[in-house]
Amino acid sequence: MDLFSKKNKETFFTPLWVNNPVATQVLGICSALAVTSKLEPALVMGLSVTIIVALANVVISLLRNTIPNRIRIIVQLVVVAMLVTIVSQVLKAFAYDVSVQLSVYVGLIITNCILMGRLEAFAMQNKPWESFLDGVGSGLGYALILVIVGFFRELLGSGTLLNFRVIPECLYVKEGGFYMNNGLMVLPPMALIIVACVIWYQRAKNPDLQEKNN
Amino acid sequence: MKALRNFLDKVKPSFEEGGKFHAFRSVFDGFETFLFVPNTTAKRGSHIHDCIDSKRAMSMVVIALIPALLFGMYNVGYQHYLVHGEEASFWAMFLFGFLAVLPKIVVAYAVGLGIEFVVAQWRNEEIQEGFLVSGMLIPLIVPVECPLWILAVATAFAVIFAKEVFGGTGYNIFNVALITRAFLFFAYPVKMSGDAVWVAKDPLCCVGSENALLDGLTGATPLGQVSTGITEITNAVGASMSPMDMVIGLYPGSIGETSVIAIAIGAIILLWTGIASWKTMLSVFAGGILTAMMFNSIGANDVMNLPWYEHILLGGFCFGAVFMATDPVTSPRTECGKYIYGFLIGFVAIVIRCLNPGYPEGMMLAILLMNLFAPLIDHCFVQSNIKRRLKRANK
């Protein structure tokens, strides 16, 4: 068995851009709005989701032949809930500030549509290794959009990146300059507009993705 | 005129396919049709019932805005000299206001038309004329202390995201000028609300007063004062204002919105030329007056106690009713729909003023909200008309 066959590579790379869970499948939008006003929580959120999707995919894939069809959603939820709890506890232990910023949204990863979508659509039919690649790919695709949105929102909304000042203090009005932070960037609507711009760019680069007018 | 025509005809070939300035085709086209009525006619169908095309209609709106613009310039200068306690002649005040307002007009037009030209060239379409009006409206609905770069950012945002992504002029759901203002309001609240932005304090290009500011200066707009619990409305230096002062409009506010007289002249031009719908205009006022009367009779807070006629005279109510609510693109097409639409704008504007202390002025949000419902109002009326006629036909 070839671990990095062409098909496996495709499984890993398509969700990163062409079949991006946020931009193409339009899943997980709510958390993309909620946690992206700063870059750091966006990064942590993206990584948490990546880890959870990857591991949940592996676990479900291992169990896929023994899970009775009628209760498969319950089993999937239990697995995801366990992983979410572990990640949430790890964040509280080692990155307390970020976990405070993320507040309920770590717990709400359990309701993230990307998770159930990948488990149902992929892990229930495929072997563990492929499922792992698919999970990592989907998670990173989600993280990519979050980081793009978080980058612009933090840069234009607070003038910082990862809490380092990027736009120099001396340009600001209170220091005698002219510049002001864009308050709209900190509000959730702007996250939607940035996601829309990413989708716009992605569709322009991949004309196959454009919906046909009937 | 003839010489201009000849000149345009002479340079036209170099802008056509294969000419050396083909990249600027849309710009040339835009100027040519701006100056002259085009010779081309519609290929299909007979929709034409008037020789006035949309560029001519837009020009009429710009003309209707000029009284408000000129008065706004004068008022900017008047407020400036007033808060410095300096006497100045009419022309000195006007010159100061002119210097303060002109850069805003230039920036709004340059940014908006620049984006329109690029998009038209890119899509291989004609330049659309909608921005002629928006570019004039935008400077009139911002405070005088709004920095130019912020205005440029907001204009670019509104033209791209409220207009071009929907398909350009005639396809926008929201009024572009109001989206600009909404963007400014939420993105840079410090420069769009509060007490400090409505009066120009520093001299411009050596014009203006060098005196220190007077004591007891408020600089808050009348509605801003009311929402902070001041019951007796004063102008920028603390003298109380009568309803007549509110009609004349020499008080702090957005540049073009203060004078009811100037706006009324604009309204007459718009109604006389038939460009704006009197139904929308009338029903906005009806909605506003009735709602304000209703709140007067409740009277639970200071804003509710503001007499109904002052509600109508102050803030952006008149300006919004005349120039924003009647925008033919974003208001309903059905004649009955216009009554509902206008009435609800007046209603929502006063409700926001009275019930939300965070927003002293509700007109902008009311019009944007009703813009959103305009297609729904149209849909309901069209469907009910179809049903009624079907019933009649099947009888």
Q: Into how many domains do the coordinates of chain B divide?
A: 2
Shape of chain A: globular
Strand content of chain B: under 5%
Total helix count of chain B? 17
Structural class of chain B: mainly alpha
Total DSSP E strands of chain B: 0
Mean of residue pLDDT of chain A?
Answer: 89
Notes on the protein architecture:
The complex is a heterodimer of chains A (214) and B (395). Chain A is mainly α and 214 residues long. Chain A has ten helices and two strands. Chain A has a domain at 7-146. In chain A, 37% of the residues are buried. Chain B is an all-alpha fold. Chain B folds into two domains: 15-36 and 54-215, no CATH class; 276-380, no CATH class. Chain B contains 17 helices and no strands. Chain B has helices at residues 2-15, 25-35, 54-83, 90-123, 131-140, 148-163, 176-187, 189-192, 222-227, 243-248, 260-273, 278-298, 302-305, 308-313, 317-324, 335-355, 363-394. The mean pLDDT of chain B is 85.
Structure summarized in a few sentences:
Chain A is mainly alpha-helical and 214 residues long. Chain A has ten helices and two strands. Chain B is globular and about 65 Å long.
List strands and helices in order, with pairings.
The complex is a heterodimer of chains A (214) and B (395).
Chain A: H1 6-13, H2 29-34, H3 39-63, H4 72-94, H5 96-102, H6 104-107, H7 113-123, H8 128-158, E1 160-161, E2 164-165, H9 183-186, H10 188-205
Antiparallel strand pairs in A: 1-2
Helix pairs in contact in A: 1-8, 3-4, 3-5, 3-7, 3-8, 4-5, 4-7, 7-8, 8-10
Chain B: H1 2-15, H2 25-35, H3 54-83, H4 90-123, H5 131-140, H6 148-163, H7 176-187, H8 189-192, H9 222-227, H10 243-248, H11 260-273, H12 278-298, H13 302-305, H14 308-313, H15 317-324, H16 335-355, H17 363-394
